[in-house]
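Side project, low priority. Logging it here so it doesn't get lost.
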Amino acid sequence: MTHTIEEKRNLLEVKGLRTSFYDGDSRIEVVRGIDFTVQKGEILGIVGESGSGKSVMVKSILGVIPSNAKVDEGEILLDGKHIESLTKKEKRAMRP
């Protein structure tokens, strides 16, 4: 009998993600220090009340936040690569 050991690999890593909305001198932080890891083959569900920042978090990861928003801090790695270093083609492939 042959056993195959499948190595667990981090597909998506989010570390210390902070995103804020800006209006002049005002700043509203809507994503506050989110950390999570999704390994290959895993499914992650995000649950929270309306207005808790779920959509902003996902848009921050995909790089499609509105012009009045900014990712203030954090590290986003897709398959070990910093998401900022991905080409436009690679980023498009992430979107449904």
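Brief comment: The first strand starts at residue 10 and ends at 23.
Revisit when time allows.
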